[in-house]
Design goal:
Structural class: alpha+beta
Strand order of the largest sheet: 7-6-5-4-8-11-10-9
Distance between the termini: 41 Å
Number of strands: 11
Radius of gyration: 21 Å
Shape: globular
Helix content: 40-55%
CATH architecture: 3-Layer(aba) Sandwich
Number of domains: 1
Largest sheet: 8 strands, mixed
Low-confidence stretches: 1-27, 47-75
CATH class: Alpha Beta
Strand content: 15-25%
Number of helices: 9
CATH topology: L-fuculose-1-phosphate Aldolase
Order of helices and strands: HEEEHEEEEHEHHEHEEHHH
Length: about 325
């Protein structure tokens, strides 16, 4: 539903002034709440760092944390610890939501300030078992430079290429989640603008129509990245979806709402009745009205962290 629609008898200019006033209030609340989320993340990272026993080997610090290890390339970088915790949380959240497929999908994060270092889960790691310390660091050639385990060849070939080519892909999530994948398996499958959740992706989706088998070479990742361009969602024909974002929170939030939009569409299509398509102009306006999307994304990630802190605290170890 679009905000700030004039009430009956209200002049449009009055509605605009009222809307601007509300936005100012919302912005202040967003700033305060966003800072609260950041403060909680810093406290969580500080607790992890505070429980470390630090040793140095060849200039690389190795931090032994309760129930596991967290390593960092450039000393005890707080942002690396936070990144590990965020990505481990995203893995477990996606598993809880049923977005995983066995052990075969991947989530990656480009370490801050390093275009040649990426966090990724080890081959064979189930998403529900992800922890901050289990995540590997691989380089842009697919070599594991930190952690124990191997990297999936398809994870390397797809993810590193999208990270390197996409202007806003600090985080890359690739899943075969059921409803989104169902749309990739039908002729001409498209995310239709027939629900408000779908409108947040208006003009943000790219479609790869050519299934080329498994991505066993970086040229396949390059091809996917080329089709994706600067869009934030890529539907892979007969395969699955890729979602990218500047933060784990943003990417996970989009992944969640993408699957929900696809679920509504598939269920609506199953009735055999015509879909009620939202006009482009209204879809665009609704998309643009999501001014607090990043704030809500932070809250969603924080909600999962709060739940896992209570029920699965080892995720942050």
């Amino acid at each position: 539903m679009l905000p700030n629609v004039p009430s009956r008898g209200e002049a449009p200019t009055m509605a605009i002034e009222r809307g601007l006033s509300r936005l100012a209030t919302v912005d202040e609340a967003v700033i305060r709440a966003g800072q609260a989320c950041r403060d909680r993340a810093r406290r969580r990272a500080s607790m992890a760092l505070g429980s470390c026993r630090t040793s140095f080997t060849g200039g690389v610090s190795i931090m032994a944390i309760e129930r596991g290890k967290v390593t960092a390339l450039h000393g005890n970088r707080r942002e690396d610890v936070e990144a590990r915790i965020d990505l481990a949380c995203a893995h477990r959240a996606a598993a809880k939501l049923g977005f995983h497929e066995g052990i075969c999908n991947h989530m990656t994060l480009m370490l801050a300030g390093r275009r040649d270092r990426f966090l990724i889960g080890a081959k064979g790691m189930h998403w529900q078992d992800a922890t901050a310390s289990k995540l590997l660091v691989m380089d842009d050639h697919g070599k594991v430079v930190e952690g124990e385990g191997d990297v999936s060849i398809t994870g390397y070939c797809i993810h590193t290429r999208i990270h390197l080519h996409h202007p806003n892909a600090a985080v890359v999530l690739h899943t075969h989640m059921p409803y989104a994948t169902a749309l990739t398996a039908i002729q001409g499958g498209r995310l239709e603008m027939m629900h408000q959740n779908a409108t947040r992706f208006f003009e943000r989706v790219a479609y790869d129509e050519d299934f080329n088998g498994f991505a066993f070479g970086t040229e396949e990742g390059d091809r996917m990245a080329s089709i994706m361009g600067d869009r934030t969602v890529l539907f892979l024909g007969n395969h699955g979806v890729v979602v990218v974002g500047p933060t784990v929170a943003d990417a996970l939030d989009d992944l969640y709402y993408l699957e929900r939009a696809c679920q509504v569409q598939v269920l609506a299509m199953s009735t055999g009745r015509p879909l009620r398509i939202i006009p482009d102009e209204l879809s665009r306006a609704t998309r643009d009205s999501y001014s607090n999307r990043h704030y809500n994304a932070m809250l969603l990630l924080q909600a999962f962290k709060d739940e896992f802190d209570r029920t699965q605290p080892e995720y942050a170890s």
